[in-house]
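Dear colleague,

Following up on Tuesday's group meeting, I ran the structure prediction for the two-component complex that the binding team flagged. I've pasted the input sequences exactly as they went in, so you can double-check that nothing got truncated or mislabelled along the way. The structure tokens for the whole assembly follow below. Feel free to forward this to whoever is handling the docking comparison.

Inputs:
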Amino acid sequence: MAKEKAVIRSDLTKAQWTWLEMKKHKVAYLMIAPFFILFTMFTVIPVVLSLILSFTNFNLLEWPDFVFMDNYIRLFLDDDIFITAIKNTLLFAVVTGPGSYLLSMMFAWFINELRPKIRSIVTLLFYAPSISGNVYLIWTIFFSSDEYGFVNAWGMKLNLISSPVLWFQDDKYIFGLCCAVALWTSLGTSFLTFIAGFQCVDMSLYEAGAVDGVKNRWQELYYITLPTMRPQMMLGAILAITGAFGFGGIINQLVGFPSPNYCAHTIMHHLEDYGGARFETGYASAIATLLFLMMIGSNTLVNRILRKLGT
Amino acid sequence: MTGGKTIFQRGLAFSLFVVLCAASILGAASMQSSALVESRYNSKSLVRTSLDEIENVLTSTTYDEYRQINAGAQKANDVIEIDFLKDIDPETTTATFNILTSGASKEELARFDMPEKGSENTKSREFFMPEEPKDIVFVGVDGMLSFRVNVKEAGYYNIWVSYFTGNVPVYAVKRDADGKIVLKNGIPEADYGTVSGVGNFSAIERYVLIDGKVPYREARSIELNRIWCDYFENKSYFSDSEDYMKFAIDHAKDTDTERPFRRDGNGNELKPEKRLFSTWTSEFLSDSTGYFTEPLEFYLSAGEHIVSLQAVRETVAMDGMRLCNASAVETPDYDTYYASHGGDAAVYHGDAEIYIQAEYAKTTSERTIYQLNNRSSVYTQPSDPALIRLNEIGGDKWEYVGQWIEWECDIPENGFYSIIPRWMQAYYSGMYVSRRIFIDGVLPFKEAGTLRFDYTTDWKTTPLTDGSRDFLFYFEKGRHTIRMEAVLGDMSTVLNRVNNSLSNINAYYRKILMITGSDPDEYRDYNFVRLIPDVLSGLKTEAANLYEVSDLLTKMTGRKGSHSATLDRVANVCERMGKYPTTIAGYMATLKSYSSSLGSWLADTQNQPLEIDYFCIQSKDKAAPKAEPGFFANLWGGIQKFWMSFFSDYDSLGSKEDGTQVSDPKYGVEVWTVTSRDQAQIVRNLVDDSFSPQYGIPITVKLVAGGTLLPATLAGTGPDVYMGAGAGDAVNYALRSAVLSLNTTTGNTNVGYNFNDFSKWENDPLYGPLIRENKIPKFDDVKTRFATTAMRPMTLYGETYGLPETMSFSMLFYRKDIFAELGLSVPDTWEEFYNIIYTLQAEELELGYPTGIAGSTILMYQQGETYYDEGDYDYYLNLFRTYYNEKGYDKSFSNVDDYLKSIRYTYQDADGNVIPTTDGITINLDSDVSLAAFKKVCELFTMYSFPVTYNFANRFRSGEMPITVIDYTSYNTLIVFAPEINGLWEFTPLPGTVSEDPQTGMTVINNTTVGGVSCSLLMRSVTEDNALGAWTYMQWWMSADVQTAYGNEMIALLGPSAKQATANTEALSGMSWSKDEYDNLFAQFNAVECTPQYPGSYIVDRYTNFAFLDVYNKDANPVTKMQSYIDDINNELTRKRAEFNYPTSDTIRSMERELESLGYDLNTFEKKEGGN
């Protein structure tokens, strides 16, 4: 179908014009409606509501009072733990976000080089940890605090430690272990998208590249492969960012809530703490709003970086 | 320090080793003498088993060994009848008992007539004299009943008892003024005014002691079975009645039209109630673990002996006991049996098919055996695509050895029939289960004792077989009973051998552990060959034994599978350890995990689950009924099920069809519970059976997922009563006015109702009559049902926001056998506890204690310290009054007190005293006592290296951790998880803190423990109309009768591991605890403290845990660490209190400062001279 030329109708107001256009494309709207309604109900409205609630004092059971900026003021000026939480979140995000992103990328690239049959087997092997739910809990068995836990038992056997170490209860180890587990489980959806992305690249481009003087695989990767799979990379980046910022569940399962001395306390945890344990939903909403803004910010940043690829 | 061991450590280890060598060489000699010394100091307190008792009762001799010792002896043919009146040995008898002589009058009999609890309205089952009147002895659950017997012929005797299966009361013994027992005709006279004990519906358990000692291990686990039958309320008959049997026989083929089972509102069939069947029966004492199918034998030499029965559980009435030979009449083998009844000529060739529906059982040995619903096949009779039909019996409810089910059938003609059950055993792949069959109470032939049912995932209809051939059974025309009993069959020898091996291996493991410690050094030569040669040869023997058993098992099941692999693995390790002692250290961890997997293997393999749908008794010429439908029938059934699944209501718990309910919906009370479906159904049934007829208030019970309460309350669709809430929920929700108070005097229905004063509802048509008949107890009366402390977590400033449901607390668990072996007695005080630490740790054994604040709270409460800062009421009250008088207050209040009350600075308690709301304003963990307690507990983990994380059940069963302080509900885990150590452990009250009573100067041991509760809450959804109904429900649920019934139903449904930790003091005694268990439990129940809940309480655990972890991980100083977190805790308490407008430490400080600046003296609250 040829593209219709835009018509300027001076006899209609903008609203009337929109309505008219909508009627014309009602099938398209009908198609989008189910998703749109659900999206609005379960994503847009809650986000807006949370934004509003962040200006109130709300305990979930009684009607909220409007307190304007109190929550935000307290958050920044009178909440040491929030500062710790920001620090931890950023640290986790910096380690696990790019880390998992690069890992997915590298593995996808390597796997892409394999023969198709082997490729699918290896893909499954790498993807398995992230589909099998709470499989990362085997880490708690390895690093059990019991003297019969694998690591403790071996450590004591080899005389590395003299008494059992509470791996997931000692601030010295928690952060590192949690990062390791996060990276281990990170070969998830983005990893699959990357593999798909690598396979979408038009082979003729490589040929053209070779003719145009691409010297090695790195150049091929940087100038041809990556720019071609920018959409997949964008998706991967968004997943990595939301994953890195919302990285709380795994810590809860491994360390428990809250972590000793708040050493692995992220913004997510802070939010849970106030929203769940302390019934302070207004305050929790303020935290959520900030988290939301942080995610949007880093998304924009990543978007900019990705656009520079191959140029 | 994480590097290698220092020279110092190695030196220490070496010297320890030398000491140990010396100790073990002296071992045998010193052990005996130390035991004697210890027992002299034994306080022999009421609740603890003394060392002497333990030593008499614990024996490592097995039955096999016992029979080896007396190998030459024959079975005695003499019959020794015991005369209760003459033979009772007064010196060794410690039990409470009553004797009813044969000529007892009706009145005397009536004293022992015990109707079942809660069944007054049903058919009375009177206690009856046995047919030929004899003396009856009624024995209580305490102590030992001993008889003197004069043996003429030396040899093996079996013990036969005739007993009553119902519950019987036992009365206390009359004592004169000096406390001496009053004798009448040479026997103690009963005091009929005082009941000493009544039955609790569990199996009757006794030990057998010969001359004061348990002769072998198996004599410790003797059970006398009860008999249970179903009671069909809708038809008001018992399943053993003629009416019911007639129905079952008439309707055996036709299961679609008429059924005896009651149905709920949705049309689902409901399980009939299990009732104890009270009758006289007799049994030879036999091994309840099932390893020995023949009754147990006891060797008695010629001369006088004392035979005693030691009570473990339940009262019992016996009318006869004799020592004789059980196998006087030999059971024939099948060929003899076949020939003796006429052989081929007697085989039945007719067309009759006699069906027995398995769900129409007459009696069962246990109440956990009940009808089940099987949906796996459309051929199961009857079946329904959507609704519950109780169409089979058995499964995992009928898997323990000795459990039996009895049915009745009507045979048309004499002859040999084949019995074809429709059965399935889909539980243990590669294994088979066994049953034995009794026809009219007799095992017809030997092979009928080992009927075999192989693993199958489909239903099967095959004639009864032992694996080699199908059997025919001879029936005469008429009615017959068929009883099938779970046995180990051929497996009994295998399992017995493995069981003995396992206990030997565990003992060897402990012996090695005592040399090497739990962290053996592989590179060190421990010189095991010299130290423990017996262990090395023992390990080799066990290895050979296990290999042999594994081969035998493979032969029996016809293939090698995972079951024999487990045995081979353990055998392999034992063999290597025995052959190459240098590898022992390296194999210790493996041996430990293998022996625990061998334990689980043993427990699993002992289970004999079997599902039965029906029996068909028919001619051997006829083809068996079809067991499974064809493809299309199956498909059609599947389609029906799928289709119906759209219309079935799975959430609501239907009430019984004929439940009478008042129609007015405004009285309706909605109750939410977060348990399992089965438990919720019990609640529903109890409501229908007991609540509705009594009160007529309509109750809806809903089963919800956890975590739904908050969103539902937020959305305004919450329940009226919420059951099973955590202790913290009550106060947390109440502060936000979602949970209502039960005793408020404010009169404000947003705060709650006052259930001490029913005047509000007196004129209500529904409640009025109930109130006038005093059917609804008041709050203050209900409160007395619980320990005072159980109400604390739900009580905040005078308002109580819930009723406790369960209360559990830490107790001291210890292994009797290990304590006896080491000659230790159970610690009564902490001092003794610390002494034990050295002894146990010298043997490389561990101790367990709750970590951090959970542990130190126990010590704090034992010293009378509170958790939060409480009290000092006069000071705060004066402060508030002076401050507001000075600063002025809202003049619409007539005086300052009214004003203070309105701003929540004070409240009135039940006695009308004005009390400030200052309790819990700050935490008391920084007091000297608290800090000392915390330090002490931290030291247990840092200095004494108690393990922080451990699997209690595993270490307790292996004996590695023979003593630990843990929640008493761990009992449930041990009972099912570690059956092999049953009887070898005990739980007792905690060690106490010793102090001197300042008034009397006496030494007092305070052994308080810390408890936790769950509670039921009155939610804000209630209105004036149904509030009293909701209260009526809440108090009814926590009444002793209902709690007892619930607890017993739970055990009936889920087995002995489902003991309910009820908070109701009276109901606790109704649960099926043994006498000793109950005594210990009750002793501790009276010394429990629950931590109160205040705004912000959640923060305490968090920071105290941080403090403990810092101490443990970073060697921080416990006192300074705890102090550093006190501010954080207090800040959060202050913040939360400010949120709810309670006085905080900040407001109080500023008040004090202001008053001081105004010239007030804060001691007297008067203005100082010259003040401005």
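The CA atoms of residues 39 and 306 of chain A lie 27 Å apart.

Cheers,
M.
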